[in-house]
Design a protein that fits this description.
Layout: E1 4-15, E2 18-23, E3 26-31, H1 33-36, E4 47-54, E5 59-66, E6 71-73, H2 97-106, E7 110-111, E8 116-117, E9 121-128, E10 131-138, E11 143-148
Parallel strand pairs: 3-5
Antiparallel strand pairs: 1-2, 1-4, 2-3, 4-5, 5-6, 7-9, 8-9, 9-10, 10-11
């Protein structure tokens, strides 16, 4: 759920598509995005009202009201669709988790948990000879890397 926040204040600095505002509740940073600032000139000393999604460090502006009464809507790109574990995201090459599981079994490992899809490989927890491993299997089914479970590099 998006947390919309509205704040009014005076611009005291402009940094490309972001600008700093001081209002009754203190200072905050507002972000219009590279496309949202196109054709717009913001100047220090101008009074504005912004509405947008509150982030820890700034407000992602979706509506900007300028001191002259003009209002500008700001469109942000849609957030990426996060796929379920083991499935490709829209920008990833298609791959079959069953083929990765088969590759693990063919290499003598017993898959023991959820298949996790990464951009260029699958990660599969598995066991072999009583030891636990994390297998990295390329999208083409090649076993790329075998790590002892819990021995991952930071």
């Amino acid at each position: 759920m998006t947390d919309l926040h509205t704040a009014t204040g005076t611009i005291w600095a402009v940094f490309g598509h972001r600008f700093a505002v001081e209002g009754p509740h203190g200072r905050f940073l507002a972000d219009l995005g590279p496309k949202g600032v196109q054709g717009l000139t913001l100047t220090p000393g101008e009074t504005v009202t912004v509405t947008g999604e509150r982030k820890p460090s700034e407000i992602k502006v979706t509506r900007l009201a300028l001191g002259d009464g003009s209002i500008r809507a700001v469109e942000w790109p849609a957030k990426p669709n996060h796929a379920k574990p083991g499935h490709a995201k829209p920008d990833q090459a298609p791959a079959d988790p069953e083929a990765a599981l088969a590759a693990a079994r063919n290499a003598g490992y017993a898959p023991s948990g959820e298949v996790r899809r990464k951009p260029k490989h699958f990660e599969i927890p598995a066991t072999k000879d009583g030891a636990a491993f994390a297998l990295h299997i390329a999208l083409d089914g090649a076993l790329r890397k075998v790590e002892l479970a819990g021995a991952r590099a930071a």
